[in-house]
Amino acid sequence: MKWACPLFLLLAALCGPAHADAPGGLSPVTMGAEAQRNEGLVVVTARAGTLSRVLPALARVVPDESRVVPIQPVGSGKVLRVHVMAGQHVARDAVLVDYLDHSLHVARLQAVQMRAALDAALAARDEAYVAWRRARDLSGSTVSEGETRRRLAVLQEARNTVLARQADVGTMTHRFHEEFNSVTERSGQGEDETSSLLAPVEGTVQSVGVAVGGDINAGQTAAMLVDLSRVWIVSDVPPQDAARLVQGGAQTTILGTRRLASRIGTIDGMASPATGLVRVISTVPNPDGALRPGMMLETELETDDRATGIVVPSEAVQQVEGRDVVFVRAGTDSAGATIFRPVPVTVGLESGGGTVILSGLSTGQPVAAQGSFALKSILLLAGLGGD
């Protein structure tokens, strides 16, 4: 191969090979400190480890279904105001929709009637009690014992009626406190019959199902709110690839310059009849909201194909004369230049920017990673190898 780049010619002249042969018949090369800085040469320590082969896939961002909240009114009526639109971010307790709550009007009328019924029951109980006390005091003289027992029965019935009316009032009070006023709804006070639907969490409005002037009914979904502080990364992969994935395995999703780490949470047991693909889901934190539903991203899924050995960055491995070689730092020469010894190695699995070395290298050895191509070029230019 012919090299026309002056930089490589300069490196060959300034650095050059050392004289003692390295294993495999390849001679060491030297490189001075300045040349190393110019080439951005980085030396790392080889370490023992295990790598898993990754499956590259295209993924989409989907809201976490467990964090999608339907906003439904308790009452029915007419929509007065819609304060939000789809895609809008809202704070907790933000007002989403105002509506004229006919059910609130009916409930307030019922509450008044129930209170009046309770007051009447209390008055009837008090009268029954006075009548029974009088009969008890006069029993055997002007009032018969039978009449006394009858009045006691009337008193007991009046007491039961009071308990029933109190239960009715309590139920209606509960409705006002827990239904018409809750984490998702606030009703008007006094004569105001306006109810407001609220956001129970901070999130994003996914959809709005009502319009100003339209009817709104109890249980109808007026809006869908999604909490996007955590989202799903969904990949659709062929069944044969899904069989190689491991639930709980590592997953890396690429978002620009960021690599988002997660764990494979769900692997569907069957392929989709529509696509023939298997859905794979992982959950990713999204505190800054950078992951938006509908985004398409590249992701890497860990498989059960693993290899154990000495792990180095993949860029540390170079091809010289058809062999895989790494450059091991072997000290300095008399001029202070660093000596790098090319060592033939047996390469195993390559994944995620790392490579497993099965033989030829030991744990703890310093190897050239970034910039090792410059060492290979020096070796080739010196005529001691071919590519």
UniProtKB/TrEMBL annotation:
Keyword Transport: yes
Residue ranges occupied by any CzcB-like C-terminal circularly permuted SH3-like domain in the UniProt entry: 310-376
SUPFAM superfamilies from the UniProt entry: HlyD-like secretion proteins (SSF111369)
Any single GO CC term annotated in Swiss-Prot or TrEMBL for this entry: cell envelope
Signal peptide positions (record): 1-20
Residue ranges annotated for the CusB-like beta-barrel domain, each copy included: 230-303
Any one biological process term the GO annotation gives: plasma membrane copper ion transport
InterPro entries the record matches: Beta-barrel_RND_2, CzcB_C, MFP_Cation_Efflux
Key words, A-Z: Signal, Transport
Entry superkingdom: Bacteria
A Pfam family annotated for this UniProt entry: CzcB_C
Keyword GTP-binding recorded: no
Name under which the protein is recorded: HlyD family efflux transporter periplasmic adaptor subunit
Organism name: Gluconacetobacter diazotrophicus (Acetobacter diazotrophicus)
Highest classification ranks of the organism: Bacteria, Pseudomonadati, Pseudomonadota, Alphaproteobacteria, Acetobacterales
